[in-house]
Amino acid sequence: MERLGLVGLPNAGKTSLFNALTGGSALVAAHPFTTTESVQAVAPLPDRRLDALAVMSASRKVVRAGVEVVDIAGLVAGSSTGEGLGNRFLAGIREVDALCLVLRAFEDPAVAGDPDPVGSLGTLELELVLADLATVESQLDKRRKAARADKRLAGEVAAMESALQVLSAGTPLYRSDVGAEQRELLGGLFLLTDKPVLVVVNLGEDQLDGAGAIVKALADELDGHGEVLGVSVQLEAEAAQLGPDERVELLEGLGLGEGALARVARASYHLLGRRVFFTTGDKESRAWSFRAGASAPECAGVIHSDLQRGFIRAEVVHWDELVDAGSWQAAKAAGRIRLEGKDYQLADGDVVEIRFNV
Ligand SMILES: Nc1nc2c(ncn2[C@@H]2O[C@H](COP(=O)(O)OP(=O)(O)OP(=O)(O)O)[C@@H](O)[C@H]2O)c(=O)[nH]1
Ligand SMILES: [Mg+2]
């Protein structure tokens, strides 16, 4: 399962967000470096499409997809050279597939540190860049020497040189135009800024009205290189403790709709390149996770290897067409169910039945 790492300055609210997303109870406190070791758990993916299918089929069970979230120790200016908890955050970040940068905007004199989301973004990016720069610099000479003996390494050296240039200018790789092919060649270095990024701005309840401006300042700063979501983490965490009806009442009363946690989970899921397809029936409605671009037999294999091995074809309908029709039979009668072969690439939100023979 791909993993999303929460990265931020101490007291940004990383653990609060982690608990809210995963239903966990990791320690949250107003002093810096409360979290010292990475902790991970799965955040279930809220999905109204799945809920609608479960209602349609009167399913006895609903199984959601999930995102693995990792709460990482806080990072401070100088972390890349050993300040704060030293390099402990580095190992945590190397092991994840995408970064969620958590930036503090909320004001609270009782919580050490400053609410300065744009400044925090700069500090975080600089430390990540410095760590990557050290990695590339330490490897480049060795790889150059090796490339003299083995010409096949020339591409890798060229990719490292491009990365060096970008990083030396203080730019994270996710903001650069280093192409996919070169990125591939850098894979062995486990660089920190070579991962996709999502930004969560942790807003105080009193900042919800002005959230648009705060989010926009960060989106401008990030210039299209990552999605920015404003979340009042503490408020959402409290809401997450409530029963479903009370939660909806609280969040909708504040104009927050279904709440921002669902948006964070979904954005992370997409950032990690994951998509879902559904199966539905009276026994269960279920969301299955697949990699964007996977073929129908590969997706069938997510359910069971026999379904991939003996794949004949898939009956497919997009979830909303199915819900509109009211049942599989009705959708079939209306000619809405498509028959797809082994080259079909599933779309996010497809509902499938696999025909197979083993
Ligand atoms: N007022 C307010 N306080 C918050 C909010 N989010 C988190 N806090 C408080 O900020 C403090 C730090 O929260 P944590 O979730 O522990 O922060 P962290 O980023 O995990 O911190 P470290 O583990 O020390 O790096 C706690 O006292 C939280 O209760 C918020 O939205 N509003
Ligand atoms: Mg923490």
Describe the protein.
Strand 8 and strand 9 (284-291) form a beta hairpin. The chain is flat, with a radius of gyration of 23 Å. The chain has a six-stranded mixed sheet with strand order 2-4-1-5-6-7, with helices on both faces. It has a three-stranded mixed sheet with strand order 3-9-8, sandwiched between helices. The mean pLDDT is 91. It has 358 residues and is α/β, with parallel strands linked by helices. It has helices at residues 14-22, 48-57, 88-94, 117-149, 154-168, 180-186, 211-222, 233-241, 244-253, 260-271, 296-303, 305-309, 319-325, 328-333; strands spanning 3-8, 39-44, 61-63, 66-71, 98-104, 197-202, 227-231, 274-280, 284-291, 311-318, 338-340, 350-356. The chain folds into three domains: 3-45 and 65-116 and 195-271, Rossmann fold (3-Layer(aba) Sandwich); 124-189, DNA polymerase, domain 1; 293-356, Beta-grasp domain (Ubiquitin-like (UB roll), Roll), CATH 3.10.20.30. The protein has 14 helices and twelve strands. Helix 2 runs parallel beside helix 13 (319-325) and helix 5 (154-168) crosses helix 6 (180-186). The structure holds guanosine-5'-triphosphate and magnesium ion (MG). Residues 8, 10-16, 28-30, 32-35, 74, 106, 108, 111, 202, 204, 232-234 line the site of guanosine-5'-triphosphate.
